[in-house]
Amino acid sequence: MRTNCFLLLLLFFFLFVLSFLDITTAQIPGFISLDCGGQNNFTDKIGLEWTPDNQIIYGIASNISVTNETRQQYQTVRYFPADSRKYCYTLNVKSRTRYLLRATFLYGNFDNNNVYPKFDISMGATHWATIVISDANTIESQELIFLASGSTVSVCLSNATTGQPFISTLELRPFNGSIYLTPFENQFFLSVSARINFGAENEDSIRYPDDPFDRIWESDLVKKANYLVDIAPGTDRVSTKLPIDIGKDEQPPQKVMQTAVVGRNGNLTYRMNLDGFPGYGWAYTYFAEIEDLDPDETRKFRLVLPGNPELSKAVVNIQENAQGTHRLYEPGFENISLPFVLSFKFGKTADSTQGPLVNAIEINKYLKIGDGSSDGAVAASLVSGYMSLDWAQEGGDPCLPVAWSWLECNSDREPKITSVKLSGKNLTGSIPSDLTKLTGLEQLWLDGNALTGPIPDFTGCPNLKIIHLENNQLTGDLPSSLADLPNLSQLYLQNNLLTGDVPSSLINKNLVLNCTGNVNLRKGGSGGGHNRNIIIGLAIGAAALFLGFIASCVLLRQRKKFPKTDPKHAMPMTNNASTEAAQSFSLSELRNATENFEKKVGSGGFGTVYYGKLNDGKEIAVKLLENTNVYQGKKEFANEVTLLSRIHHRNLVQFLGFCQEEGKDILVYEFMHNGTLKEHLYGPLARERGIKWIKRLEIAEEAAKGIEYLHTGCVPSIIHRDLKTSNILLDKNMRAKVSDFGLSKLAVDGTSHVSSIVRGTLGYLDPEYYISNRLTNKSDIYGFGVILLELISGQEAISNFGINCRNIVQWAKMHIENGDIQGIIDPALGNEYDIQSMWKIAEKALMCVQPHANMRPSMSEVIKEIQDAILIERGGDAAARERSSDEMSRQTVLNMGSLDLCANDQDLSIDESFSRPGPR
């Protein structure tokens, strides 16, 4: 007996050791796990082997400190300059092998600036995603599945919008088989949007070693993973310890398939956000019967996809399709159109005794592979001979998404290289013959190197205009073929070892030619004459440049002497003020135009607005400023008028002039015939003629463009400070224009924020600005988010004052987060809208009203979402789905904050409306 016990214990110990060895050493060959910014190799707790990224020559490694994150690979980052370059990692792969590529980003305030970065990541010439950091302690992750077409792949960071590009980890995982084989893999990557383990026992994800390919299966208990809501009553979580026959080794791992959710009441319903969608994608559902059913019990159900009541797959009978219990069955779509907000439902059939069951779902979006530069092969060959030099190690496509630092490219769909600037780059040997294959080349700068040998034939580059070959050691004759370049205008060859005669065709060609310093190069008959021609050519070129300079100076002087406008009553300007003065109206003119300020058409915190008509019939709006705290005197008012007179945009109410007499400060604007947006949403005009949803979107787009201009097109930038529906005016054609810009702020003076007394309107007021007194353009974004919610709902920002007062942000947030968008849509819209465009605007509105300013989008991002929604409404949803939706943040709905103005609780309902996916 003791012997048997000893042998049994020995067996258990042996199995334990085998299990440990399997975890720590059985990593699939080809795994790459880069610890970006790390210094040493190490093996983590789950058995993955990590190596530092110190082979990359760019960027700065930095340690970070984050809460609740102890994994070694997330203690460091590598970050890069916020410039116009791209910074690339090059990974070795096997051609015609499928891989999973994962990049993660944990900010951790590595730069001590608390500026949340936003930048692009690309795979070769293909824009992969825009990384938007919204929390210093949250890991952002992007995954891509691709078929390798060569021996290397490049992952590049570029185009910083805010902060500096950075990366925490970069991982590559090879697949063995063909589960991710699609008919389109040569034209599209698969961008991973959702990979969910239903019925998970806790919030932990499942990955290596349970999944030998290290896919990360998110628990359905973690809302932030895929924003899962709308869980139907009667949804149970079930699990088993029995083994599951998963068939092919790339199917979901056994641990994932051993848990599931079951709809005891006959239904399973969910709604989730799909990163990167709307668009076309690859979607599979994984089933395994893990409950023991009696012989007379059946489990049959249908999968209903969004918006397609007539489209559903055949009846799912797991035991029948999987040919037994505890075996995997995986129905799916290789090409299906999906929305950003996906509602899906599993419902049992009438002849089924059991409700539906689902174990896992995997959804990937098709990402079009970029065509890349047409000169990519030539550029790769060119740098291959100089891989030891820094300039040759930039990686990625030479032109996309941004060009290498020493190149310039045109804007063709398949860009061509137009300029090569390798001055002083330690080039040796002969001039690379690959340069002569660049058909779009216009400028070639190879000066200041140690190049030897003859000048090659450049007739394969017919667009060449400028050639710099000076200060090298080039030998041989000067080729006459250079004269055959039709656009050549400048040729610099000085200080080389060229010999022979300068071809007469070059001497007679109209170009700047410098051959000095080549002692054995002669004209052919008379060396002196040759030198004279060269000198004359240079003198003519210099004279032309000099004359052009003189002409420019004369014109500038004339412009200063005769300004474009000559106002009737010029106001005093400071020395730094623009000479572009606005028209100065006399007080008597304005009294006549307004019939002594009789017809009042509006009022606000800064004054009263009156209707007027000038003698020439032009209708005007005259604002009589009443708030004496706005301006401290004539100097401040003059500066403000100067600023306003320089601002011109079709979506800003046009500033016409001013008047400053008898102690009155008056501003004159164009008159807007259709009043304010507020009046059309919930004023008297709303009852007379309501605005349709498509028109509301157009108004939102126009207003957003006006605000974007204030933020990015003005120097200094202008913060509106009081964005609201009553400050969005509508002209005769119902075109939206923003009013009251520039008056409700103090001068920014080049700082990133303005510290001042809080001004604004309750309901639109940025809570962070309210608390800190720090005004930024993101305060305008908050107000615009409130306006978007008003456009959706037709409700005021603050309504029902008293015991039942309601703040639109809290009210709308509650409905949207719970999937009940129908609960906030304006009944006046009827059914004349597409639910997907409505969701797009609702999600973006909630992003705009996030509590922290650095978590809000820019106005340009908001405009893109509005434009996509307009495309959907106009029947161009296919075009909208093809647009890049990477501006969407991964974490679309976060904990919002606003001034707590007693939002009411509302009953929740599940939106079960669907829309049909269209064919590709």
SSE map:
Layout: H1 2-25, E1 32-35, E2 42-43, E3 49-52, E4 60-63, E5 76-79, E6 86-92, E7 98-105, E8 118-123, E9 126-132, E10 140-147, E11 152-162, E12 166-167, E13 169-174, E14 188-197, E15 218-219, H2 223-226, E16 235-239, H3 254-257, E17 259-263, E18 267-273, E19 279-288, E20 300-304, E21 316-317, H4 318-322, E22 328-329, E23 332-338, E24 341-348, E25 357-358, E26 360-368, H5 376-384, E27 407-409, E28 417-421, E29 428-429, E30 443-445, E31 450-453, E32 466-468, E33 473-477, E34 490-492, E35 497-501, H6 504-507, E36 512-514, E37 520-522, H7 527-561, E38 583-584, H8 587-593, E39 600-604, E40 607-613, E41 619-625, H9 634-645, E42 655-661, E43 664-670, H10 677-682, H11 684-688, H12 693-713, E44 728-730, E45 736-738, E46 754-755, H13 767-772, E47 774-775, H14 777-793, E48 798-799, E49 806-807, H15 808-817, H16 835-848, H17 859-873, H18 877-882
Parallel strand pairs: 1-3, 14-15, 28-30, 29-31, 30-32, 31-33, 32-34, 33-35, 34-36, 35-37, 38-42
Antiparallel strand pairs: 1-13, 2-3, 4-5, 5-12, 6-11, 7-10, 7-13, 8-9, 8-11, 10-14, 14-26, 16-17, 17-25, 18-24, 19-22, 19-23, 19-26, 20-21, 20-24, 27-28, 39-40, 40-41, 41-43, 42-43, 44-45, 46-47, 48-49
Helix pairs in contact: 12-14, 12-17, 14-16, 16-17
